[in-house]
Write a structure and sequence with these properties.
CATH class of the largest domain: Alpha Beta
Order of helices and strands: HHHHHEEHEHEHEEHHHHEHEE
CATH architecture of the largest domain: 3-Layer(aba) Sandwich
Strand order of the largest sheet: 5-4-3-6-7-9-8
Helix content: 40-55%
Distance between the termini: 66 Å
Number of helices: 13
Largest sheet: 7 strands, mixed
CATH superfamily of the largest domain: Vaccinia Virus protein VP39
Number of strands: 9
Radius of gyration: 21 Å
């Protein structure tokens, strides 16, 4: 079968599942990953014959897409801050809002100074990027999921980052040292919201990384409670948050030993990021 035939099959089978541009991008990603053809080469080489082995891989990917499996999990790859991270079902797929969080830290913090802790590190995209971009004195990362930490360590090795990963449950345990910066993108989806999420999220991404049990502010309240034990005086908190909970989180911080509290919108105008200074 030639390449244009595969393109026709993908478009026919998935036309009701994806918008046209998204579907076109998925096809390009798969051709690049399995066949080594970029977008231009795909157009110029539409009549090349696809060998049997590659054909089976493409058809398998098609079946997985039809079952709502995210393309990042199909190819075990996700791009974050310009780098390719390995991802599988043990970790969330990195989002653009998290890139904005990292960018904010890199803009605000002086490269080379201080030590940073990431709580709930997942794939390691936050601490690895901070280490490679900021060249801070040290970057540590905590994660309750042993499987996620295996993935994160793999990414650190692949990308040449010097991050210290530790298996630790922040809700019951406390890190051993104080930090200049603590960053976190913790679980914050309300449990009742899970049923309304897209199938590619709720059926494939780890629920433990999406929603805490009970109070969606559980992890934020915990970090506030142990702030004296994890932050140096003058240390900064940076959080990614639920767009509907910004004002509640600001109130929590105002009631604690924090100043210079800033609630920031993402590129879509949603309250998604918070910064505060501990005193």
């Amino acid at each position: 079968m030639i390449l244009v035939d595969f393109t026709a099959i993908f478009k026919k089978e998935l036309k009701t599942q994806f918008e046209e541009n998204e579907l076109r991008n998925h096809i390009v990603i798969l051709y690049d990953f399995y066949l080594g053809l970029d977008r231009t080469q795909t157009v110029l080489n539409g009549h090349i014959e696809v060998d049997e082995q590659d054909a089976l891989k493409l058809l398998s990917a098609l079946a997985e897409l039809k079952n709502h499996k995210p393309i990042d999990y199909i190819i075990n790859q996700s791009v974050f801050y310009g780098r390719e991270f390995y991802v599988d079902k043990s970790v969330l797929i990195p989002r653009s809002e998290t890139e904005e969080l990292v960018q904010w830290i890199l803009e605000e913090e002086i490269a080379g100074d201080g030590i940073i802790l990431d709580i709930g590190s997942g794939s390691g995209c936050i601490p690895i990027t901070l280490d490679l971009e900021g060249k801070f004195e040290a970057v540590d990362a905590l994660e309750i999921s042993t499987d996620a930490n295996v993935t994160a360590r793999k990414n650190a090795v692949n990308l040449g980052a010097k991050v210290t990963f530790e298996d630790l449950d922040i809700l019951t345990q406390i890190p051993k040292r104080h930090y200049d910066v603590v960053v976190s993108n913790p679980p914050y989806v309300r449990e009742e919201e899970l049923e309304g999420l897209d199938k590619n999220v709720v059926e494939y991404e780890p629920t433990i990384a999406l929603a805490p049990k009970g109070d969606p502010l559980t992890f934020y309240k915990r970090m506030i409670a142990i702030a004296p034990q994890i932050l140096k005086n003058g240390g900064r908190l940076y959080w990614e948050i639920h767009e509907d909970l910004g004002k509640e989180i600001v109130v929590l911080l105002n009631n604690g030993p924090f100043s210079d509290i800033e609630l920031r919108e993402d590129l879509y105008g949603r309250d998604r990021l918070v910064k505060a200074t501990f005193h």
